[in-house]
């Protein structure tokens, strides 16, 4: 993302939101920027960022990152007003410049707009004013919309005010299975149930993950079933990697049993982690 982008992230699963936001935050911190995330669940967000390799304690103590509840910036009690929210945004931009940071990255979980609060009809106006305020600055904003909870009319009403759209690269998506890229830590994520009918999609996802340098995570925490052929494909992909690269297989107990059965734990560089382990 560019310094003054006003981007719209649409997501379908909490893991997708957390994954993409972690990548946005990680890149901002690496570039010497200050980061603020207004989240629906700040404490949970801190835990998830830590799990994705971001040192939240040290960056927070240094003042480089703040994670707050949505009402701490955008809302005044149980009401929303564009003037109040824009005042908060301008204060954050001014503080960032005053403190000498290279720029500012703000992530806004827009789930607050689903609450029964007054002033919600001003949401499109807020998005429009943000777009104007960010132009020519060193600040960017990532607006986060759950595409399953927001109706299409609302999403369409705000899309025109964003400079770009953000979503996870998706290899397979139907009512039974979703396979998409994971960005932090790098790898792929599977949710639902997978069998040989989705082998081509799985092969493509694994191939693209392998082409990127470094370790790979295959996140199957939300996968309830995997057949033997797909299990073998993942193990064979891990076995094909150079010795210096590691593969983390994260999954629930039933799926983990399949990998144990086929000897995944004996493959060099492979770590099998159940969904309750961190």
Largest beta-sheet characterization = 6 strands, parallel
Order of helices and strands: EHEHHEEEHEHEHEEEEHEHEHE
Low-confidence stretches: none
**How many strand elements?**
14
**What's the mean pLDDT score?**
93
Question: In angstroms, what is the radius of gyration?
Answer: 20 Å
Tally of individual helices: 9
Amino- and carboxy-terminal Cα gap: 30 Å
Instruction: Characterize the overall form.
Output: globular
Arrangement of strands in the largest sheet? 3-2-6-7-1-8
Q: Kindly state the percentage of residues in helix.
A: 25-40%
Q: Determine the strand fraction and express it as a percent band.
A: 25-35%
Secondary structural class: alpha/beta
Question: Would you kindly provide a written description of the structure presented here, covering whatever features stand out?
Answer:
This protein is α/β, with parallel strands linked by helices. The protein has 9 helices and 14 strands. It has helices at residues 14-30, 42-51, 56-61, 82-98, 123-134, 152-159, 199-211, 228-239, 253-261, and strands at 6-11, 34-39, 65-69, 75-76, 79-80, 104-109, 139-146, 164-166, 170-173, 177-183, 186-194, 216-226, 247-251, 270-274.
SSE topology sketch:
Layout: E1 6-11, H1 14-30, E2 34-39, H2 42-51, H3 56-61, E3 65-69, E4 75-76, E5 79-80, H4 82-98, E6 104-109, H5 123-134, E7 139-146, H6 152-159, E8 164-166, E9 170-173, E10 177-183, E11 186-194, H7 199-211, E12 216-226, H8 228-239, E13 247-251, H9 253-261, E14 270-274
Parallel strand pairs: 1-7, 1-8, 2-3, 2-6, 6-7, 11-12, 12-13, 13-14
Antiparallel strand pairs: 4-5, 9-10, 10-11
Helix pairs in contact: 4-5, 7-8
